[in-house]
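Figure 3 (text version): structure tokens given as input.
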């Protein structure tokens, strides 16, 4: 287990990598751990209204690079993941989660019915534009969680919002699927030529962003 100082050091080491070393590859065991971080990422109500696409195909990566304003991270990183959110929330999504909880936890029928009623009570939050924003925020939660996990393994990342989601959907065949693109996320190892790696972090003093009461 990491010490508190080791964890803080990992966070200080992390930055948004702008130039990856295309020859540096992530070891399979390390990548498996990072996929598990996606798998275990927290989500509101535990609903996991997302899907993560690991894009290994080089031709598809080139097309996604073009749909990312030619940012080279998409092409050069060892791994590239497209983070997708549900387009909407259906009763079937709620029931799928409740049934999975029953399978894992052996919950009672009464508890399953109670969970369904609770989820339906929250359904106002995932309607219309507010619901779209709420589902996108879940994907951002996952991205931050995985970025921290990657830093602990000394794997560089770049969370990429500077993309054309509709073009991604077209390239990946998502247009008629329940999911839509929200973010891209590149993983690999920084190039020695990336000057950003040597820059100090620009953060406000901690007492300006954290208060206690």
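Below: residues designed for each position.
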């Amino acid at each position: 287990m990491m010490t508190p100082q080791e964890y803080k050091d990992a966070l200080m080491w992390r930055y948004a990598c702008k130039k990856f070393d295309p020859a540096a590859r992530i070891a399979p065991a390390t990548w498996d751990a990072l996929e598990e971080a996606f798998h275990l990422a927290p989500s509101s109500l535990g609903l996991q209204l997302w899907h993560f696409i690991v894009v290994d195909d080089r031709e598809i990566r080139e097309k996604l690079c073009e749909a990312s304003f030619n940012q080279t991270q998409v092409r050069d990183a060892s791994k590239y993941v497209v983070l997708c959110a549900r387009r909407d929330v259906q009763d079937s999504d709620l029931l799928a989660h409740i049934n999975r909880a029953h399978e894992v936890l052996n919950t009672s029928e009464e508890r399953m019915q109670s969970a369904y009623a609770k989820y339906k009570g929250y359904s106002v939050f995932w309607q219309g534009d507010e619901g779209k924003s709420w589902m996108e925020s879940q994907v951002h939660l996952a991205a931050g969680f995985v970025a921290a996990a990657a830093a602990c393994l000394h794997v560089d990342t770049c969370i990429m919002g500077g993309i054309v989601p509709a073009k991604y959907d077209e390239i990946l065949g998502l247009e008629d699927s329940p999911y839509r693109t929200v973010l891209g996320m590149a993983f690999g190892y920084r190039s020695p030529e990336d000057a950003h790696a040597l820059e100090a972090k620009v953060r406000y003093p901690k007492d300006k962003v954290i208060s206690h009461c």
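Strands lie at 50-54, 79-86, 156-160, 179-188.
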